[in-house]
Amino acid sequence: MRPIWTGAIGFGLVNIPVKMYSATQASELDLDMLDKKDHSNIRFKRVNEKTGKEVTWENIVKGYMHNDKYVVLTQKDFESAAAEKTKTIHISDFVAEKEIDSLYYETPYYLEPEKTGVRAYALLREALVKTGKAGIATFVMRSKESLAVLRVNENVIVLNRLRFHQEIRDTSGLKLPSKTSVKTAELKMAISLISQRSGEFDIARYKDTYTAQLMKLIKAKAKGKTTKEPKLKVVHSKAKDLMEQLKESLATKHKKAS
């Protein structure tokens, strides 16, 4: 793996030099866009809107429109805006991880210590485990300040980017049913259904079956086989009454994900 960011964790007065790695990888197929006529690849170009000529990456800069004129910013400008933040994952608070709503979670990254930070990394990791806490931190990556949570997963400190509170939309505009619309008997039956299908969470049981099926279809088409027109089969319960549907669900054998 190649690091996508290098810097340090700021833990009080302790600095822990670390490298950051992406913790995830795509599972979907990498499909190319083609011209329908001759299957030629479609390419996107960065074009100057005035000249119509293509512009290479090394000649592209970032700018902000201010008083009808662009102010061009360099990498040094971004770093000068907050020099310390661009190289430090600054932990400001420690909280119980369960207090963080999953709505706020974004991308996960692995943090690996540099040689000079091994002991301090191990210390922070064990302290987080012993206290059951997670560190709330801010850092800058790709010219954007992010909020993050640092937590321990097995033997590695994981940094999860978090959404800021103002990025979460308010729900007041949604038309939602009230609690009074739920009948006691139906609620008990729904709880029984949940209990019947409850168990320990194991992420390894859940597979990306769509990608596997798509790959199977691609191989079949490569051999000249034709694909059938898909027909969506919607399975309706025989009973229209909600209570009867719940009873029917409880009587039906549940197939677990595999």
What does this 3D model show about the protein?
The protein is an alpha+beta fold and 258 residues long. The protein has two domains: 5-27 and 60-165, Ku70, Chain: A, Domain 2 (Beta Barrel); 180-250, no CATH class. Helix content is 22%, strand content 27%. It is built from five helices and nine strands, in the order ββββαββαβββααα. It has helices spanning 75-81, 118-131, 184-196, 209-222, 242-251; strands at 5-11, 14-22, 62-66, 69-73, 88-96, 105-113, 133-141, 144-153, 156-162. The strands form two sheets. Strands 1-2-6-9-8-7-5 form a seven-stranded mixed β-barrel. A hairpin with a 2-residue loop joins β8 and β9. α3 packs parallel to α5 (242-251). The mean pLDDT is 85.
Write the CATH fold name of the largest domain.
Answer: Ku70, Chain: A, Domain 2
Instruction: State the distance separating the first and last CA atoms.
Output: 29 Å
What would you call the structural class? alpha+beta
Largest sheet: 7 strands, mixed, barrel
Mean pLDDT, rounded to whole units? Answer: 85
Strand order of the largest sheet: 1-2-6-9-8-7-5
Query: Strand-residue fraction?
Result: 25-35%
CATH architecture of the largest domain: Beta Barrel
